[in-house]
Amino acid sequence: MTEQAGPRTVTIRDVARLAGVSTSTVSRVLDDRHPPSTSPSAERVRAAAAELGYRPDAYASGLRRQHTGTVGVLVPRLSDTVMAVFFEEVARACARQAGFAMVATTEDRPEAEKATVETLLRQRVDGLILTTARLEDPVAAQLRAQGVPHVLALRTDHISPSATGDDELGGYLATRHLLDLGHRNIALVAGPSYASTAVARQAGYRRAMTEAGIHEVDHLVHESTFGMDSGETVARAILADPDRPTAIFAVNDNTAIGVLAAAQAAGLSVPEDLSVVGYNDIPVSARLPVALTTVRVPFDQIAANAVELLTQQRTGALGEPRRVVTPTLIPRQSTARPPATGIARGRRKPQERPGRMPT
């Protein structure tokens, strides 16, 4: 079902029209940095603003802000390694232009995003880089309406300027790797449907499976969050199925680590009983007891693209509004050919699992 559009945002043009003054007068009267005026026109402006429900906010002030060399970066949480790594890359990209990046978190809660954006804009940042975008994101829509320079990074809403990886290709590469090893019963821990990254990686998975002649995959796709706990919970259910898969592609490395934990709990050896592929290639992936096969995302390139797109908006030189970089499959120890036909795939005793995760 399509959601009903919310009420139209009241702008300073609406206030100016009702008060019978110019937009610059409205901007000056409602700017709390200026001494309050008691002139008749100022009174009309305040009355019009109250009648229309207009509230001056950080979005509008962004249009009047002078260059400060500071970029605001919005992330769901810094405890997520991907977000921490990406912010560090943005900070480096800003430093190369003698700029500075500051970060704020939202815990991936939409209701917190608008307030966090306003807080960053009150710090007089030149623009915003948001990794929190959801499909049909109202915050991105409001930023566009107010003309605030911003770039969506890692995720996109397919409208605002964005810097991302080719997630559809990455999902395809991960699944193709498992198919090339001989797997056919491949489950997907798919991530949340509101995130473009998860949607695109699932599309890549489905394309690879279709090319292999496997058309019925809905029963193999399991929605999750991006966290380890969710990956483990979903994988426990997947592995409890009597016709459990021989391989799992997880939407990111965190959920893949959760899958590894679930495999250990089920008494399965990785990769002898179950192959696992993650996504992002966070630093820990190569250092796990069973090194994780994953898809490497060039976060440094995405960060550089995001900063460049933001600079182009500020200077009025915006070219191609969407930058997409290519991911790379990194095969490691967590994937192998599936168990031979006819060999029982049951529980093993812990001492019989040479590649099991530590307790």
From TrEMBL:
<keyword id="KW-0238">DNA-binding</keyword>
<dbReference type="InterPro" id="IPR028082">
    <property type="entry name" value="Peripla_BP_I"/>
</dbReference>
<feature type="compositionally biased region" description="Basic and acidic residues">
    <location>
        <begin position="349"/>
        <end position="359"/>
    </location>
</feature>
<dbReference type="Pfam" id="PF13377">
    <property type="entry name" value="Peripla_BP_3"/>
</dbReference>
<feature type="region of interest" description="Disordered">
    <location>
        <begin position="26"/>
        <end position="45"/>
    </location>
</feature>
<keyword id="KW-0805">Transcription regulation</keyword>
<dbReference type="InterPro" id="IPR010982">
    <property type="entry name" value="Lambda_DNA-bd_dom_sf"/>
</dbReference>
<protein>
    <submittedName>
        <fullName>LacI family transcriptional regulator</fullName>
    </submittedName>
</protein>
<dbReference type="GO" id="GO:0000976">
    <property type="term" value="F:transcription cis-regulatory region binding"/>
</dbReference>
<dbReference type="InterPro" id="IPR000843">
    <property type="entry name" value="HTH_LacI"/>
</dbReference>
<dbReference type="InterPro" id="IPR046335">
    <property type="entry name" value="LacI/GalR-like_sensor"/>
</dbReference>
<dbReference type="Pfam" id="PF00356">
    <property type="entry name" value="LacI"/>
</dbReference>
<keyword id="KW-0804">Transcription</keyword>
<feature type="domain" description="HTH lacI-type">
    <location>
        <begin position="10"/>
        <end position="65"/>
    </location>
</feature>
<feature type="region of interest" description="Disordered">
    <location>
        <begin position="330"/>
        <end position="359"/>
    </location>
</feature>
<dbReference type="GO" id="GO:0003700">
    <property type="term" value="F:DNA-binding transcription factor activity"/>
</dbReference>
